Amino acid sequence: MLQQLITVTELSGSRREIGLAHGRTHALLIQRSLEVYDRLFHDFVGIRWVRARAEAKRFGRMIERGFPEILEEMDAIAEGAGVEPIDILTLNCRSEISLTRASGGCSAFSLVHAGTQWLAQNWDWRTDQLHNVVALRIQGRDAAPLVSVGEAGMVAKIGLNAHGIGVCLNAIRSQTCGEGLPIHVALRKILESPDMESALAVASRDRVCSPAHFLVASASGEAVGLEVHPGEPGRLGAEGGVVTHTNHLYAPDATAQVEDFPRPDSRPRLARLDDLLGQALPAKGPVDERTLFEILADHHGEPLSICRHFNPAQPPEERMETLFGVVMNLTERRLTLRHGKPCETEEALVVAL
């Protein structure tokens, strides 16, 4: 898999100004993302882009109720990229449209060590999205500066803000979809939160319309795993300063309400994360970005490993690979990104707030 070193895209101003700059800067990548998801929707749920756009319209009404100001930014992304607003809405609702039948990978963890709050994950997805990954640093007029790493045209995915609030994402395969914010819109609202209380309220008050896991942490040393869905989210507190998650639900208050259908690699990856964080880290002494990228580059039990490579045993449409690894030092408001598999490069983009 070829890698390319990406740079941070600076966006600032009003919602419209941020969206226009996003769309204009990444117009080609956005158009390519639309093509990727046209194929993906066909592979996973048997629909083409026209049908997906029709399904996305109902989520627009939910966004209007829970986070209306982001719609202006989404419309401006579309204008800047030369596509229709419904295309950007559909792109930002891709999880709700596609994850009823297939889940991505992703292994995430938070760690408090020597007074520093860390948050890290691998993002595993279809290989054809590798070069559509972007890193955005957004300075809006009504929220603190934030950094988000995700797919071009989407309003957010994984990142942190200047208040020291950070969030990671694990996909959950489930047939549940109800009322609430789409996953990627909810992630942006978390990244605009001034404190942990308001970040957690996105899941418990606004709700999220389809299941996922949000690992939310703060520079103050608090971390909570939120297994979100249209009802009250399941909560996973830190044990020994650590929270880990992959792609299955295991908080009792979530599993009592939602049925998920994880792939067989999810539980082995979670067990390996727990083992590495519970035993290896204390023996290694000081923790830094390199230490945590070693965990994200782990191949134990491959092909069911934390760092995921091409697996010919999987059906072609479900072959997920690690597309990037990210380590966030929330205490120092610093995000470090390795684009591509973290085992294959030590080159990194470092963004500080």
From TrEMBL:
What Gene3D superfamilies does the record point to?
Answer: 1.10.10.2120, Penicillin V Acylase, Chain A (3.60.60.10)
Identification of the protein by name: C45 family autoproteolytic acyltransferase/hydrolase
Ranges for domain Peptidase C45 hydrolase come to 116-342
Q: Which domain of life is it from?
A: Bacteria
Q: State a single Gene Ontology molecular function.
A: acyltransferase activity
**Keyword Transferase listed:** yes
Q: Which UniProt keywords apply?
A: Acyltransferase, Transferase
Question: Which species is listed as the source?
Answer: Halomonas mongoliensis
| Matching NCBIfam families | C45_proenzyme
